[in-house]
Amino acid sequence: MTDHAVLTLEHIGLRIGGARILQDVSLQVPAGEMLGVIGPNGAGKTTLFNVISGVIRPTEGTVHLDGRDVTAEPIHRRAAAGLGRTFQTSSLFPALTVLENVRLTAQAHAGHATSVFHTPRRSDAATATASAALAEVGLADRADTVASGLAHGQKRKLEIAMLIAMDPKVILLDEPMAGVGSGDVPAITEVIRGLHRGGRTVLMVEHHMEVVLGLVDRVAVMHHGELLAVDTPEAVMANPTVQSAYLGESV
Ligand SMILES: Nc1ncnc2c1ncn2[C@@H]1O[C@H](COP(=O)(O)OP(=O)(O)OP(=O)(O)O)[C@@H](O)[C@H]1O
């Protein structure tokens, strides 16, 4: 493990029943990198995110976050240690306003008690953090809108703002373009690019190949639960093993 790797996977394996879902996945993600994770359906991308975020414990191997072994730690401990994640399905509180949604995560990060059953406590610091996160994703003018009233693309931006407010060391984006209309893709791409420009470390599973290749520093290619290659977009596109296993049929 190098000193500057903020996320390190070593020899991750996962067996469920008789099935081998992940096999010998090793990966180092330096601080500030944006890494795309691609691969055909069923390749193991979401499962890998589940292993990183603590939803699933691997049967082999280790996960280190910022040098600390979190392999045995539950989801909330990893989140507290700086792992932020969006899911393929929305994780918003639909009855709260846009600002209240972000303020909840800002308060949670600051260590305040939060409950969805109470009006979020007024806190100047949390409100300032939330407002800054909304400005970063371009939703400042929707702060008082009830979240359920947002268009789909705006909900995706709100989810990213909720992550930003937690100031995570590593951000996992699970298919940020899923369900997003083609008209919203450029704006959300810019929000993700902004995460990177801000120096954040981002891993992104995404099927939208143009988005991935245009955004990331490196691409990790998964196939049948294994990492086929981890390299620059250009090198991955030119890799014959990747082409025959995946890109040849999809790009
Ligand atoms: N809990 C489970 N029990 C059994 N098999 C599972 C389980 N979770 C995932 N799998 C299998 O593991 C493989 C990898 O699934 P995963 O969802 O991680 O792939 P993916 O690359 O994210 O696919 P997609 O692009 O379709 O989202 C699939 O064959 C899936 O059926």
Automatic annotation (TrEMBL):
SMART domains: AAA. Residues 7-249 form the ABC transporter domain. The keyword Zinc-finger does not apply. Keywords: ATP-binding, Nucleotide-binding, Transport. SUPFAM superfamilies: P-loop containing nucleoside triphosphate hydrolases. InterPro entries: AAA+_ATPase, ABC_AA/LPS_Transport, ABC_transporter-like_ATP-bd, ABC_transporter-like_CS, BCA_ABC_TP_C, P-loop_NTPase. The keyword Nucleotide-binding applies. It comes from the Bacteria. One of its GO terms (molecular function) is ATP binding. This is ABC transporter ATP-binding protein. The lineage of its organism: Bacteria, Bacillati, Actinomycetota, Actinomycetes, Micrococcales.
